[in-house]
Amino acid sequence: MKMKMKMNDQVDEYFNSISDLADEILTQLQKEVIKLGFASDALILKQPEEAIYRLEKDPYNGQDCLIGDWRDDKGTKTGSLQFNSEGIFFVEQDIIQPHPTDKRWFVEAVNAWGTKKEIKSEARLIANME
Q1: Is 15 helix (H, G, I), strand (E, B) or coil?
Q2: What pTM was estimated for this model as a whole?
Q3: How many domains does the chain have?
C-alpha cells in the first residue's frame, strides 16, 4: 500500500510499517458499520492511505507517534488515526447518520483501539432528540 501524499521519508517509512495493521483496523470498522444495520455499500469508509499523516512526539516517552487525519472535500476533519511507538493505536471515523434500524439513536462515529494482537471496536451513538 502506498500513501497518496508522501509527506517525508520518516512518515512514509512509519506508515509502511503499520499499513497492514491499518488495513485490519479498517476491516474491523467496516464490520461495526454492517453490525449496526447499514448495507455493506451504504457507507464507504475512508482508506488509511487517504489520511494526511505527520509525526508527533509522545509526551510520555518522547518517541514518535504517527498521526493521520481524514478530511472531507471542504477540509473538515472526519476522522483520525494514531499509532504509538509501543504498538498501541486509536482510530476514529465519523459516520454522522441516523441509526439504520433504531430511530432512538444517531451514529456519530466508529472507533477502534488496541494493539496488533487485539483490535477492539465500537460505534459511538448519541440519543436522537426527536
Answers
A1: helix
A2: 0.88
A3: 1
